[in-house]
Design goal:
Rossmann fold, 43% helix, 16% strand, alpha/beta, 22 strands, globular, 24 helices, binds adenosine-5'-diphosphate, seven-stranded mixed sheet
Length: 742
Amino acid sequence: MNSIAQIKRIGVVTSGGDSQGMNAAIRAVVRTAISAGIDCYAIYEGYSGMIAGGELIRKMEWREVSGILHEGGTAIGSARSSEFRTRHGRRQAAANLVHNGIQGLVVIGGDGSQTGANLFRQEWRDLLSELVAEGNITPDQALAHPELAIVGLVGSIDNDMFGTDMTIGADTALHRIVEAVDAIINTAASHQRSFIVQVMGRHCGYLALMAGLATGANWLFIPENPPEPGWEEEMCAMIHAGRLSGRRHNIILIAEGAINRAGKEISSEYVSNVLLHRLNEEARVTILGHVQRGGSPSAFDRIMPTQIGYTAVHELLNYSSDREPRLIGVRDNRVYASPLMENVLKTRQVQDLIRDREYGQAMQMRGRGFVEAHTILNTLLRAQPRPSGPDTRPLRLAIMHGDAPAPGMNTAVRAAVRLGLDQGHTMLAIYDAIEGFARGDIREMNWTSVHGWVSRGGAELGANPRAAMEKDFPLIAGQIADHRIDGLLMIGGYLGYDFAYQLHSRRAQFPEFNLPILCLPATINNDLPGTELTIGSDTALNSNVEDLDKLKEAALASHRCFAAEVMGRDSGYLALMCGIATGAEYVYFPEEGIQLEKVRRDVLLLRDSFQQGKRVGLIVTSERADAFIKTDFVATMFEKESGGLLNVRHSILGNMQQGGRPSPFDRIQATRLAGRALQYLVEQVYRGVPVVGCLGRIEGKIEYTPLTNLPDLMQPGFQRPRDQPWLENQKIAVTMAEPPIS
Ligand code: ADP
């Protein structure tokens, strides 16, 4: 069989509904292709552009995808094409691809677009025979294009596709929804109102569910899990009970595909009427609509599409005609390839299950994370303080922070406190971290103590980067005894982890320390062992990306370069990821250090680019990138070594990176981790096992890691873990930033 010897020319197309982050994928595909020495053509306006051909199929140059990372939508246009559904349309599209010498396609779109692409691929040989017979292409051209290689990337805000944990655009849509609901909560609380917010998701409740978890919604309707008959009464009872307990607002989230158990639509109007007639509550309805598709992509929706766009090109370069085409997505925090059509079929299967009212199976097919999020949300919205059961001993559990504040800390405390109270335990808050513990600033929390904390930035319990001192330990031992603390939950950064380790090391001296101690990772630096992601790092990344976008704008206006310094202590995570998300030219971070030779080389490359018409330059440095060379010096080097051609300013983003409302992802993570942590801690107390460890995300799963050997988990002399899988992104960052030298 004649097969593609080597792919030299590929096309990229965005099709179906647009979503934020598609531009990052296009940019990655174009730049990875050019770096690999192959041509990349953009097919404008989806499949209709493929059929129209001409100016709508154009070779892309490196510079043409500059300045699009921060834009929502797709720079090459998208469309729905009824013509592509016809064989005649697809034949014309095939002719245009052959005329342009395109051998492989990266298709960025939803399940419809992927189905179309697969059909096109299957028909390819026949279409080409027909084109030869018509005289539209020559037999030689047909021979040179024996088949069409395809690879799929999923662009969809709904997160409704199998084969990837996240679709391109879903995280940004969640940002838009959460921003809107946060704003609505302010006004709802002022007037003691109920709001019904309808979000997108015709077949998939992902956005509604995660937004519910991230905003502390009071009721949720999703297509996969319709409410039981009689839900109207139950919902009203819950809302009424909430009002009686002093809650000033109610938020009801409804996915646009919400149905009842009989498969009949539940509309926002219906829910609103139920509240009016049963509770005499005039609820306001907000239908969020297209704002969910809009706005600048989140950090995640720039980084993830860059990673999968990069991988998609390599997939085509390693194309094998005897393998089914694949979809490139992410699973368990890693790029993941799986058979394209199998995923499309499974995606449709869930829709069929919902149609056939097999809701239990539909939920199971959504996966573990979805089911767990649903269970936690249901527990949180139903939870209420109650005495513990007759067969369980009520516990006294304490929560504290350690190290600097991180967005999401309050969210985690709220979840842990409420879930603990719901089980009948006494929840104690240790204020002011280690210092407050020693001083005995310990207070009992009640249900309303954590009201509004789901979205609040900072750390209400107080967090500060102060390590434990020898004098603290006897005092802390006394406090544990006085307050009869059964288990300790530390939500914080390295100094908090170290504190847990120090307590463990002193158990012989202070028997009071023989209690289960569990740490949850919360720091913007993402520098902790036992987890690939810490609570707070996503918010910091988003905050930095917003600031760096502004710096880039200013740089563009004034033909300047900026060297921007971000936090991270000894970890370059924030710097590297910000660099990828904002399209920085160079990133200097502690794992690599700053070599003057490298800086000199970078300057010359940047100078050449400016001489060829480049107008903006961004260099990101990490606060401890090098022990001696600081950011201002890097800026000076760039200016001096470029012979004055580059005008470079430096800017230190500073402590604002630790503030701000937590991002949706950080809220969801904080809530899920806190839910698991509470459960784990309670189990250990009942079992009488004084564990000292942490819970974190490892390859996407929540895992326990003991901290009894904390120093061994760290790189000697540095505050960063031995294992840093994110470093793999360095090669992608370099590919995106450096055009090949011609
Ligand atoms: P999405 O890709 O977002 O699911 P659509 O389902 O509207 O969006 O599909 C986008 C385009 O993909 C359609 O307008 C059509 O051109 C093409 N397409 C979808 N399904 C098919 C199909 N079964 N056969 C051929 N082309 C299809």
